[in-house]
Design a protein that fits this description.
By secondary structure, chain A is α+β, with helices and mostly antiparallel strands. Chain A contains 12 helices and 8 strands. Chain B has a single domain, classed as Beta Barrel (OB fold (Dihydrolipoamide Acetyltransferase, E2P)). The chains are: A alpha+beta, B alpha+beta. At the A-B interface, helix 1, strand 5, strand 6, strand 7 and helix 6 of A face helix 2, helix 4, strand 3, strand 4 and strand 5 of B.
Chain lengths: ~280, ~150
Amino acid sequence: MKIIKLPLLPQITVLLISAAFVDSALAAKGWGVTGEEIARFDAKVVDILCELSGDCPENCGGGKRQLGLIDSEGKLILVGKNKSPFSGAAVELLPFCGKQVTADGLFTENRGVRLFALQFVREGSDGKWRGATRFVNDWAERNGFAADSAEAKQWFRNDPNVIRIIERDGLLGLGKEADKEFLAGMGMAASAQTASAPNGQALFGQRLCSTCHGPEGKAPIQSTYPKLAGQNKEYLVQQITDIQSGARNNGLTAVMKPIVQKVTAEEIEAISEYLSSVPR
Amino acid sequence: MILSKLCGAAIIASMTVFGTHAFAANGERIQVTGEFMDTWCYTSQVMGGADSVLGSAHHVCAVWCAAGGIPVGLRTDDDKIYMILKFGDDDTSVANLGVLDLQSKSATVDGTLYERDGINYLLIDEIIDDHGIVNRTHEITGVIPPFALPKQ
Protein backbone atom coordinates (compact mmCIF):
# COMPACT_ATOMS: atom_id res chain seq x y z
CA MET A 1 0.00 0.00 0.00
CA LYS A 2 1.47 3.32 -1.05
CA ILE A 3 0.90 6.43 1.05
CA ILE A 4 1.08 9.82 -0.61
CA LYS A 5 0.21 13.43 0.05
CA LEU A 6 -1.73 15.02 -2.76
CA PRO A 7 -0.93 18.67 -3.45
CA LEU A 8 -4.59 19.67 -3.20
CA LEU A 9 -4.97 17.93 0.14
CA PRO A 10 -2.09 19.12 2.29
CA GLN A 11 -3.98 18.41 5.50
CA ILE A 12 -5.08 14.91 4.71
CA THR A 13 -2.99 11.85 4.31
CA VAL A 14 -4.52 10.10 1.39
CA LEU A 15 -3.88 6.46 0.81
CA LEU A 16 -3.60 5.46 -2.79
CA ILE A 17 -5.26 2.14 -3.17
CA SER A 18 -2.80 0.01 -5.04
CA ALA A 19 -3.37 -3.30 -6.73
CA ALA A 20 -1.92 -4.97 -3.66
CA PHE A 21 -4.43 -3.38 -1.28
CA VAL A 22 -6.23 -6.18 0.52
CA ASP A 23 -9.43 -4.17 1.18
CA SER A 24 -9.82 -3.02 -2.40
CA ALA A 25 -13.39 -4.37 -2.53
CA LEU A 26 -14.29 -1.82 0.13
CA ALA A 27 -12.42 1.11 -1.34
CA ALA A 28 -14.44 4.28 -1.88
CA LYS A 29 -15.70 4.96 -5.39
CA GLY A 30 -15.92 8.25 -7.19
CA TRP A 31 -19.44 9.56 -7.74
CA GLY A 32 -18.69 11.97 -10.55
CA VAL A 33 -19.55 14.99 -8.40
CA THR A 34 -17.99 18.45 -8.42
CA GLY A 35 -14.43 18.70 -7.12
CA GLU A 36 -14.41 15.16 -5.79
CA GLU A 37 -11.29 13.56 -4.37
CA ILE A 38 -11.28 10.03 -3.06
CA ALA A 39 -9.59 9.88 0.33
CA ARG A 40 -8.81 7.45 3.11
CA PHE A 41 -7.39 8.81 6.34
CA ASP A 42 -7.17 8.29 10.10
CA ALA A 43 -9.16 10.67 12.26
CA LYS A 44 -11.02 11.10 15.53
CA VAL A 45 -14.84 11.28 15.54
CA VAL A 46 -16.08 14.45 17.24
CA ASP A 47 -19.28 16.34 17.99
CA ILE A 48 -18.81 19.53 15.97
CA LEU A 49 -20.82 21.81 18.26
CA CYS A 50 -18.82 20.53 21.24
CA GLU A 51 -15.59 21.06 19.37
CA LEU A 52 -16.47 24.66 18.55
CA SER A 53 -18.30 25.90 21.62
CA GLY A 54 -17.34 23.56 24.47
CA ASP A 55 -20.98 22.44 24.89
CA CYS A 56 -20.38 18.70 25.14
CA PRO A 57 -23.17 16.29 26.07
CA GLU A 58 -22.48 12.59 26.55
CA ASN A 59 -22.07 10.34 23.54
CA CYS A 60 -21.79 13.23 21.06
CA GLY A 61 -25.44 14.10 21.63
CA GLY A 62 -26.74 10.58 20.95
CA GLY A 63 -27.37 11.10 17.24
CA LYS A 64 -29.01 14.50 17.21
CA ARG A 65 -25.84 16.45 16.39
CA GLN A 66 -23.68 16.71 13.30
CA LEU A 67 -20.45 14.81 13.72
CA GLY A 68 -17.08 15.51 12.19
CA LEU A 69 -13.58 14.13 11.91
CA ILE A 70 -10.39 15.62 13.28
CA ASP A 71 -7.51 14.48 11.12
CA SER A 72 -3.92 13.90 12.17
CA GLU A 73 -3.09 17.56 11.65
CA GLY A 74 -5.96 18.80 13.79
CA LYS A 75 -8.19 19.89 10.93
CA LEU A 76 -11.95 19.62 11.51
CA ILE A 77 -13.76 17.94 8.61
CA LEU A 78 -17.52 18.20 8.21
CA VAL A 79 -18.97 14.85 7.19
CA GLY A 80 -22.08 15.75 5.24
CA LYS A 81 -23.11 12.53 3.52
CA ASN A 82 -23.20 8.77 3.87
CA LYS A 83 -23.65 6.08 1.22
CA SER A 84 -27.46 5.88 1.25
CA PRO A 85 -29.90 8.09 -0.67
CA PHE A 86 -30.64 11.55 0.73
CA SER A 87 -29.06 10.94 4.13
CA GLY A 88 -26.24 12.22 6.30
CA ALA A 89 -23.47 10.57 8.23
CA ALA A 90 -24.18 11.26 11.91
CA VAL A 91 -25.79 7.86 12.45
CA GLU A 92 -22.84 6.19 10.71
CA LEU A 93 -20.24 7.86 12.94
CA LEU A 94 -22.11 7.82 16.24
CA PRO A 95 -20.86 4.35 17.31
CA PHE A 96 -17.34 5.76 17.07
CA CYS A 97 -17.90 8.96 19.10
CA GLY A 98 -14.57 10.09 20.57
CA LYS A 99 -12.70 7.19 18.94
CA GLN A 100 -10.02 6.98 16.32
CA VAL A 101 -11.27 5.62 13.01
CA THR A 102 -10.14 5.17 9.46
CA ALA A 103 -12.56 6.98 7.17
CA ASP A 104 -12.91 6.10 3.51
CA GLY A 105 -14.92 8.19 1.10
CA LEU A 106 -14.63 11.30 -0.98
CA PHE A 107 -14.35 15.01 -0.57
CA THR A 108 -16.38 17.36 -2.67
CA GLU A 109 -15.52 21.02 -2.85
CA ASN A 110 -17.48 23.79 -4.42
CA ARG A 111 -17.79 27.50 -3.77
CA GLY A 112 -15.41 27.35 -0.84
CA VAL A 113 -17.29 24.60 0.99
CA ARG A 114 -15.55 21.29 1.47
CA LEU A 115 -17.59 18.30 2.64
CA PHE A 116 -16.67 14.68 3.16
CA ALA A 117 -18.98 11.87 2.00
CA LEU A 118 -18.33 8.79 4.11
CA GLN A 119 -18.53 5.47 2.29
CA PHE A 120 -16.75 3.12 4.71
CA VAL A 121 -15.47 3.40 8.27
CA ARG A 122 -13.60 1.19 10.71
CA GLU A 123 -12.48 1.63 14.30
CA GLY A 124 -8.77 2.29 14.60
CA SER A 125 -6.57 1.23 11.76
CA ASP A 126 -7.36 -2.47 11.87
CA GLY A 127 -11.03 -2.73 12.88
CA LYS A 128 -13.67 -4.33 10.70
CA TRP A 129 -14.82 -2.18 7.80
CA ARG A 130 -18.49 -1.27 7.64
CA GLY A 131 -20.32 0.48 4.88
CA ALA A 132 -21.85 3.85 5.72
CA THR A 133 -25.35 2.56 5.04
CA ARG A 134 -26.68 2.28 8.56
CA PHE A 135 -29.18 5.12 8.10
CA VAL A 136 -31.91 3.12 6.35
CA ASN A 137 -31.91 0.40 9.02
CA ASP A 138 -31.98 3.05 11.71
CA TRP A 139 -34.87 4.86 10.00
CA ALA A 140 -36.81 1.59 9.60
CA GLU A 141 -36.37 0.74 13.26
CA ARG A 142 -37.47 4.21 14.38
CA ASN A 143 -40.53 4.14 12.14
CA GLY A 144 -41.68 0.56 12.63
CA PHE A 145 -40.77 -0.92 9.25
CA ALA A 146 -38.67 -3.90 8.29
CA ALA A 147 -35.23 -2.82 7.08
CA ASP A 148 -35.78 -4.53 3.72
CA SER A 149 -39.33 -3.22 3.24
CA ALA A 150 -40.34 -1.10 0.26
CA GLU A 151 -41.09 1.71 2.70
CA ALA A 152 -37.55 1.68 4.07
CA LYS A 153 -35.95 1.55 0.62
CA GLN A 154 -37.86 4.69 -0.28
CA TRP A 155 -37.67 6.09 3.24
CA PHE A 156 -37.64 9.67 1.96
CA ARG A 157 -41.16 9.25 0.53
CA ASN A 158 -42.44 7.65 3.73
CA ASP A 159 -40.85 9.73 6.45
CA PRO A 160 -43.62 11.24 8.60
CA ASN A 161 -41.97 14.65 8.81
CA VAL A 162 -41.47 14.80 5.05
CA ILE A 163 -45.10 13.80 4.46
CA ARG A 164 -46.31 16.45 6.93
CA ILE A 165 -44.31 19.25 5.32
CA ILE A 166 -45.18 18.36 1.71
CA GLU A 167 -48.82 17.91 2.66
CA ARG A 168 -48.85 21.34 4.30
CA ASP A 169 -46.66 23.39 1.92
CA GLY A 170 -46.89 21.50 -1.36
CA LEU A 171 -44.18 20.18 -3.65
CA LEU A 172 -42.82 23.63 -4.38
CA GLY A 173 -43.20 24.87 -0.82
CA LEU A 174 -45.52 27.57 -2.17
CA GLY A 175 -48.83 25.99 -1.27
CA LYS A 176 -51.24 23.59 -2.95
CA GLU A 177 -52.57 26.15 -5.42
CA ALA A 178 -49.09 26.82 -6.77
CA ASP A 179 -48.63 23.06 -7.21
CA LYS A 180 -51.86 22.76 -9.18
CA GLU A 181 -50.92 25.62 -11.47
CA PHE A 182 -47.43 24.25 -12.01
CA LEU A 183 -48.52 20.67 -12.69
CA ALA A 184 -51.16 21.83 -15.15
CA GLY A 185 -48.53 23.88 -17.00
CA MET A 186 -46.14 20.95 -16.98
CA GLY A 187 -48.61 18.81 -18.88
CA MET A 188 -48.67 21.43 -21.63
CA ALA A 189 -44.88 21.65 -21.66
CA ALA A 190 -44.59 17.88 -21.97
CA SER A 191 -46.92 17.88 -24.99
CA ALA A 192 -44.94 20.65 -26.65
CA GLN A 193 -41.65 18.86 -26.02
CA THR A 194 -42.60 15.79 -28.00
CA ALA A 195 -42.64 17.85 -31.19
CA SER A 196 -38.84 18.09 -31.32
CA ALA A 197 -36.44 15.16 -31.80
CA PRO A 198 -34.95 13.97 -28.49
CA ASN A 199 -31.24 14.34 -27.82
CA GLY A 200 -29.97 11.24 -25.99
CA GLN A 201 -26.95 12.89 -24.45
CA ALA A 202 -28.98 15.80 -23.08
CA LEU A 203 -31.71 13.46 -21.86
CA PHE A 204 -29.17 11.33 -20.01
CA GLY A 205 -28.59 14.37 -17.77
CA GLN A 206 -32.10 15.83 -17.82
CA ARG A 207 -33.71 12.53 -16.83
CA LEU A 208 -31.15 12.21 -14.01
CA CYS A 209 -29.63 9.00 -15.35
CA SER A 210 -26.19 10.56 -14.75
CA THR A 211 -27.05 11.23 -11.11
CA CYS A 212 -26.58 7.53 -10.31
CA HIS A 213 -24.71 6.16 -13.32
CA GLY A 214 -22.20 9.03 -13.49
CA PRO A 215 -21.11 11.25 -16.38
CA GLU A 216 -21.43 9.38 -19.70
CA GLY A 217 -22.58 6.33 -17.75
CA LYS A 218 -18.99 5.57 -16.83
CA ALA A 219 -18.80 6.16 -13.07
CA PRO A 220 -21.80 4.91 -11.06
CA ILE A 221 -22.09 6.34 -7.56
CA GLN A 222 -22.34 2.88 -6.03
CA SER A 223 -20.53 -0.27 -7.00
CA THR A 224 -23.88 -2.06 -7.22
CA TYR A 225 -25.06 0.26 -10.00
CA PRO A 226 -24.04 -0.70 -13.56
CA LYS A 227 -21.71 1.16 -15.90
CA LEU A 228 -23.71 1.91 -19.02
CA ALA A 229 -21.15 3.36 -21.41
CA GLY A 230 -20.70 1.20 -24.49
CA GLN A 231 -23.56 -1.14 -23.60
CA ASN A 232 -25.61 -2.56 -26.48
CA LYS A 233 -28.48 -0.29 -27.43
CA GLU A 234 -31.03 -3.10 -27.72
CA TYR A 235 -30.13 -4.39 -24.26
CA LEU A 236 -30.53 -0.92 -22.71
CA VAL A 237 -33.88 -0.32 -24.39
CA GLN A 238 -35.12 -3.69 -23.15
CA GLN A 239 -33.93 -3.15 -19.56
CA ILE A 240 -35.35 0.37 -19.22
CA THR A 241 -38.64 -0.66 -20.80
CA ASP A 242 -38.91 -3.72 -18.55
CA ILE A 243 -38.19 -1.70 -15.41
CA GLN A 244 -40.73 0.91 -16.51
CA SER A 245 -43.44 -1.68 -17.11
CA GLY A 246 -42.61 -3.75 -14.03
CA ALA A 247 -41.66 -6.81 -16.12
CA ARG A 248 -38.30 -6.54 -14.40
CA ASN A 249 -38.59 -5.82 -10.69
CA ASN A 250 -35.59 -7.46 -9.10
CA GLY A 251 -32.45 -5.98 -7.55
CA LEU A 252 -32.34 -2.20 -7.42
CA THR A 253 -35.19 -1.56 -9.83
CA ALA A 254 -37.21 0.03 -7.00
CA VAL A 255 -34.74 2.93 -7.11
CA MET A 256 -34.88 3.26 -10.88
CA LYS A 257 -38.56 2.75 -11.53
CA PRO A 258 -39.77 6.20 -10.42
CA ILE A 259 -36.99 7.82 -12.45
CA VAL A 260 -37.85 6.10 -15.72
CA GLN A 261 -41.57 6.27 -15.25
CA LYS A 262 -42.12 9.38 -17.36
CA VAL A 263 -39.46 8.70 -19.95
CA THR A 264 -41.09 8.16 -23.32
CA ALA A 265 -40.29 5.26 -25.66
CA GLU A 266 -38.67 7.71 -28.05
CA GLU A 267 -36.49 9.11 -25.28
CA ILE A 268 -35.48 5.60 -24.18
CA GLU A 269 -34.35 4.95 -27.74
CA ALA A 270 -32.37 8.19 -27.80
CA ILE A 271 -30.70 7.63 -24.42
CA SER A 272 -29.81 4.04 -25.34
CA GLU A 273 -28.46 5.11 -28.70
CA TYR A 274 -26.28 7.72 -27.00
CA LEU A 275 -24.95 5.33 -24.33
CA SER A 276 -24.13 2.65 -26.86
CA SER A 277 -22.00 5.19 -28.72
CA VAL A 278 -19.92 6.20 -25.67
CA PRO A 279 -16.55 4.39 -25.50
CA ARG A 280 -16.21 2.20 -22.41
CA MET B 1 0.06 34.11 45.10
CA ILE B 2 -3.19 32.65 46.45
CA LEU B 3 -5.04 34.14 43.50
CA SER B 4 -2.57 32.60 41.09
CA LYS B 5 -2.97 29.17 42.75
CA LEU B 6 -6.75 29.50 42.53
CA CYS B 7 -6.52 30.47 38.88
CA GLY B 8 -4.27 27.50 38.20
CA ALA B 9 -6.69 25.17 39.96
CA ALA B 10 -9.59 26.65 37.99
CA ILE B 11 -7.76 26.08 34.71
CA ILE B 12 -6.95 22.47 35.63
CA ALA B 13 -10.57 21.89 36.72
CA SER B 14 -11.80 23.44 33.51
CA MET B 15 -9.51 21.22 31.42
CA THR B 16 -10.74 18.19 33.34
CA VAL B 17 -14.36 19.03 32.73
CA PHE B 18 -14.00 20.02 29.10
CA GLY B 19 -11.12 17.75 28.18
CA THR B 20 -9.59 18.78 24.90
CA HIS B 21 -12.31 21.34 24.35
CA ALA B 22 -10.95 23.78 26.95
CA PHE B 23 -9.75 26.03 24.16
CA ALA B 24 -12.96 26.15 22.11
CA ALA B 25 -13.12 29.57 20.52
CA ASN B 26 -15.68 32.22 21.29
CA GLY B 27 -18.15 32.81 18.52
CA GLU B 28 -19.05 36.07 16.86
CA ARG B 29 -22.54 37.51 17.11
CA ILE B 30 -24.03 38.10 13.64
CA GLN B 31 -27.26 38.82 11.81
CA VAL B 32 -27.50 37.32 8.36
CA THR B 33 -30.11 36.85 5.64
CA GLY B 34 -30.15 33.80 3.43
CA GLU B 35 -31.94 30.73 2.16
CA PHE B 36 -32.20 27.50 4.13
CA MET B 37 -30.77 24.95 1.73
CA ASP B 38 -29.53 21.46 1.02
CA THR B 39 -25.75 21.59 1.38
CA TRP B 40 -24.96 18.25 -0.25
CA CYS B 41 -26.82 18.81 -3.52
CA TYR B 42 -25.53 22.38 -3.64
CA THR B 43 -21.85 21.68 -3.10
CA SER B 44 -21.68 18.39 -5.02
CA GLN B 45 -23.89 19.68 -7.87
CA VAL B 46 -25.07 16.10 -8.16
CA MET B 47 -28.35 17.35 -9.59
CA GLY B 48 -27.08 20.31 -11.55
CA GLY B 49 -26.19 23.95 -11.02
CA ALA B 50 -27.47 26.46 -8.50
CA ASP B 51 -30.91 26.96 -10.09
CA SER B 52 -31.54 23.22 -9.84
CA VAL B 53 -30.73 22.86 -6.16
CA LEU B 54 -32.12 25.99 -4.56
CA GLY B 55 -35.58 27.39 -4.00
CA SER B 56 -38.90 25.95 -5.09
CA ALA B 57 -37.42 23.64 -7.77
CA HIS B 58 -35.56 21.69 -5.14
CA HIS B 59 -37.96 22.01 -2.22
CA VAL B 60 -38.94 18.34 -1.95
CA CYS B 61 -35.36 17.13 -2.24
CA ALA B 62 -34.19 19.75 0.27
CA VAL B 63 -36.74 18.42 2.75
CA TRP B 64 -35.70 14.82 2.03
CA CYS B 65 -32.04 15.64 2.63
CA ALA B 66 -32.71 17.62 5.80
CA ALA B 67 -34.93 14.83 7.16
CA GLY B 68 -32.12 12.40 6.36
CA GLY B 69 -29.71 14.38 8.49
CA ILE B 70 -27.63 16.06 5.80
CA PRO B 71 -26.44 19.41 7.22
CA VAL B 72 -28.73 22.30 6.37
CA GLY B 73 -27.07 25.53 5.36
CA LEU B 74 -28.09 29.15 5.20
CA ARG B 75 -26.90 30.59 1.88
CA THR B 76 -26.58 34.33 1.43
CA ASP B 77 -26.99 36.21 -1.84
CA ASP B 78 -23.21 36.58 -2.05
CA ASP B 79 -22.92 32.77 -2.01
CA LYS B 80 -21.62 32.35 1.52
CA ILE B 81 -22.86 29.22 3.27
CA TYR B 82 -23.39 28.85 7.01
CA MET B 83 -23.80 25.32 8.37
CA ILE B 84 -26.54 25.32 10.99
CA LEU B 85 -25.60 23.60 14.25
CA LYS B 86 -28.24 24.90 16.63
CA PHE B 87 -31.75 26.33 16.40
CA GLY B 88 -32.87 28.42 19.39
CA ASP B 89 -32.47 26.35 22.53
CA ASP B 90 -32.50 23.11 20.54
CA ASP B 91 -29.02 21.76 19.88
CA THR B 92 -30.34 19.21 17.38
CA SER B 93 -28.65 19.65 14.01
CA VAL B 94 -29.65 16.29 12.52
CA ALA B 95 -33.17 16.58 11.08
CA ASN B 96 -34.12 19.49 13.35
CA LEU B 97 -37.89 19.92 12.93
CA GLY B 98 -37.77 23.72 13.15
CA VAL B 99 -35.13 23.87 10.43
CA LEU B 100 -37.04 21.33 8.30
CA ASP B 101 -39.99 23.70 8.33
CA LEU B 102 -37.79 26.46 6.95
CA GLN B 103 -36.17 24.54 4.10
CA SER B 104 -36.06 26.59 0.86
CA LYS B 105 -37.31 29.70 2.68
CA SER B 106 -35.35 32.90 3.03
CA ALA B 107 -34.98 34.37 6.50
CA THR B 108 -33.02 36.88 8.50
CA VAL B 109 -31.54 35.27 11.57
CA ASP B 110 -29.59 36.30 14.61
CA GLY B 111 -26.97 33.94 15.95
CA THR B 112 -23.39 33.04 16.77
CA LEU B 113 -20.83 32.33 14.09
CA TYR B 114 -17.85 30.01 14.43
CA GLU B 115 -15.36 29.65 11.60
CA ARG B 116 -13.14 26.59 11.52
CA ASP B 117 -10.99 25.21 8.73
CA GLY B 118 -12.81 27.05 6.00
CA ILE B 119 -16.37 26.26 7.09
CA ASN B 120 -18.79 28.73 8.67
CA TYR B 121 -20.92 27.23 11.43
CA LEU B 122 -23.96 29.10 12.70
CA LEU B 123 -25.84 28.69 15.98
CA ILE B 124 -29.18 30.37 15.32
CA ASP B 125 -30.64 32.13 18.33
CA GLU B 126 -33.63 33.72 16.69
CA ILE B 127 -35.47 34.08 13.39
CA ILE B 128 -35.81 37.83 12.97
CA ASP B 129 -37.86 37.67 9.77
CA ASP B 130 -39.20 34.75 7.73
CA HIS B 131 -39.51 35.88 4.09
CA GLY B 132 -40.92 32.59 2.81
CA ILE B 133 -39.77 31.03 -0.44
CA VAL B 134 -38.54 33.84 -2.66
CA ASN B 135 -36.41 31.79 -5.03
CA ARG B 136 -38.98 30.52 -7.57
CA THR B 137 -36.54 28.31 -9.42
CA HIS B 138 -39.25 25.88 -10.58
CA GLU B 139 -40.16 28.51 -13.16
CA ILE B 140 -36.70 28.00 -14.69
CA THR B 141 -35.93 24.32 -14.27
CA GLY B 142 -39.14 22.57 -13.21
CA VAL B 143 -38.84 20.25 -10.23
CA ILE B 144 -35.39 18.77 -9.61
CA PRO B 145 -35.16 15.83 -9.38
CA PRO B 146 -38.23 15.10 -11.52
CA PHE B 147 -38.95 11.92 -9.56
CA ALA B 148 -39.83 14.17 -6.62
CA LEU B 149 -43.12 14.75 -8.46
CA PRO B 150 -46.00 12.40 -7.65
CA LYS B 151 -46.75 9.55 -10.02
CA GLN B 152 -49.52 10.44 -12.46
